[in-house]
Amino acid sequence: MILDTDFVRAQFPAFAVPDLQGQAFFENAGGSYPCGAVIDRLTRFYTERKVQPYAPYTASRLGGEEMDEARARMAAILGVDGDELSFGPSTTQNTYVLAQAFAGMMEPGEAIVVTNQDHEANSGPWRRLAERGIEIREWKISPETGHLDPDDLETILDEKVRLVCFPHCSNVVGEINAVTEITALAHAAGAFTCVDGVSYAPHGFPDVGALGPDIYLFSAYKTYGPHQGLMVIRRALGNLLPNQGHHFNAGALEKRFTPAGPDHAQVAACAGMADYVDTLYAHHFSHEAAPAARGQAVHDLMRAHEQKLLAPLLDAVNGRNSVRLIGPADAENRAPTVALALNTNAEDAAAKLAKHGVMAGGGDFYAGRPLNAMGVDPEKGVLRLSFTHYTSKAEIDQLIGALDAVL
């Protein structure tokens, strides 16, 4: 099955905006275009349901039902129970809440493993627990390739480790980490796992239930939705951690790690992401399937299309003397997030690409730790070229042509 990119792009209003015509969007790792279903649901909530939800009058009842729909349908796609999915204002804030919960459960001298491959969101909140007497152990990447070797993790696991935090894939290295294998290593040592899926989920929602981590986090605004953070916490761990919400919400797993009231409209709009998955599935497949299976089928469609477009881009940048490709050079085991270390300032290079109709970014992208570990000058940063399944071959050709002119 081949992804119908014309159909896909028709689901995104941005591609019909006159001012965006001819502009190839390659900063999707910073935030994707929202799909039409999300925009429609957000607009409807703000115009018809913008009242306190869950009261008996119609507008309130419907608003609450839409919020519940978003939770139930997204959880089903992710392969978990509805109450194992929480919504918060961002992945970074969700992680800070989690860190406070673990601090309340752990004893001084117990350990958490973090990596230096992560975005700061899944690193900084945990590292700060050192101030509370928690030992922080760093699982280090290869300074040449950025690879996280599971064998290196085994050497720092022991009975003191309670949690292992790592990314599904890094927002600059791009390599896809073996979540199931790493989780198995952690579980064998008696530790839980917390996976930052922010840079992976835009390329297909994973079946978290099948992957096996205890915590999985990602950001809806990078998966065609509103600015929310989605957080899966499996029940065994969620009930073990101390409640971080209001005391009267302690018995509701989906509320235990949401200290403040959620953004009702944006939670409801997240159902549009499920609408989008179902729309793509119905267009490409004729047989019925359960939500997680539909999600996996759409995931595979997206990944196959992205890999086909990624290969020529990697070939185009990997052979340049003035460019260092961060992460693996093969398309099979990486996300289409391509970070390039240049001899010049990366922000300047992004500005030059803009003159060729290419929207990209330059900087450290809150990934200073992996860039420093790989010897990249933080003042220069990296040029990041990131795309998703709605990117076309013509846009890849436009990007490569622009790189030829600029680099």
State the share of residues found in helices, binned by percent: 25-40%
Element-level helix/strand string: HEHHEHEHEHEHEHEEHHHHEEHEEHEH
Describe the sheet with the most strands: 7 strands, mixed
Beta-strand share of residues: 5-15%
Q: What general form does the structure show?
A: globular
Strand order, sheet with most strands: 2-8-7-6-5-3-4
Q: Nearest-angstrom radius of gyration?
A: 21 Å
Q: Write down how many β-strands occur, each being a DSSP E stretch of 2 or more residues.
A: 13
Mean pLDDT: 97
Q: What structural class results from the helix and strand content?
A: alpha/beta
> Ranges with pLDDT <50 over ≥5 residues?
none
Give the count of helical stretches: 15
The rounded distance between the terminal residues' Cα atoms is: 36 Å
Name some characteristics of this structure.
single chain, 407 residues, alpha/beta, seven-stranded mixed sheet, four-stranded antiparallel sheet, 15 helices, 13 strands
